[in-house]
Amino acid sequence: MSLTQSSRIVVLHLTKYGDSSLVVHTIDSVSGRCSYLLRGAGRSSRVSVGSFHNLAVLDIVSVSNPRSSLAVIKEYEPCLQLDSLRSDVDKNSIALFISELLYRTVVEQNCDERLFNWLCQAIARLDAIGEDTANFHLWFLAGFCTVMGFGPTSEGLFDGCDLLRADNLALLRQLTAADFTDAMAIPLTGSRRRDFCEQITRYISYHLGMNLHLRSLDVLHDLYR
Asked: Can you give the pTM of this predicted structure?
């Protein structure tokens, strides 16, 4: 018996499936990390593949069948337009990084409402921000540590903070405590941003028990030298 479900998704990645279908890897407001089948994604189809870009936030109607491991997306509609994110090269590169981070680290097939709501807010902020985007991925990493439960505690402590050098721990606390506008205005060199991201990536790897290597970070390092 088929089951129809309405939910909201954040698109992380697309994989080709057959001649005219795609597997859409997502974080779902109901099911957590999950994948859907999008049929009819060929050139002559009415399906707009462009709507399924990195970090697209869509309201969907899906249909699952016990004979298939993948539910099928039957209807979809953008929840956020995200025109700036799609057209701006820097923002698009940040979106690629965030998508890769989430694709590799979020594996739970249960909804984490706190993570999902924070992620949607962060995506909207990325689209709305002006030209000063150089600190956004640092701010996102700091917020990701918090929403994933790595810290800070009510005393301002981070679990496993001995893995971080004092200057990077101080920057992590600053990014976490500052409001968004102030966080974007923190003066940092390209090498300082790179060093922070590399240490925070190792910090996340420690907590998740994985060797996390994000190739998209190299693109951001080149952009924000």
From this structure: 0.93
Task: Say whether the peptide bond before residue 152 is cis (omega within 30 degrees of 0).
Answer: yes
Kind and range of the H or E run holding 97: helix 89-105
Compute CA 18 distance to the chain's CA centroid, rounded to the nearest angstrom. Answer: 26
Residues in CB range of 68: below 8 A, 6 or more apart: 37
Same-domain status, 115 and 201: yes
Q: What is the pLDDT of residues 93-149, one digit of tens each?
A: 999 999 999 999 998 888 899 999 999 999 999 999 998 999 999 999 999 999 998
Straight-line distance from the first to the last Cα atom of the chain, in angstroms, rounded to the nearest whole number? 55
In contact, 168 and 200? CB cutoff 8 Å: yes
On the CB side of 27, CA atoms within 13 Å amount to 27
- Domain final position from 24, 53, 78: 78
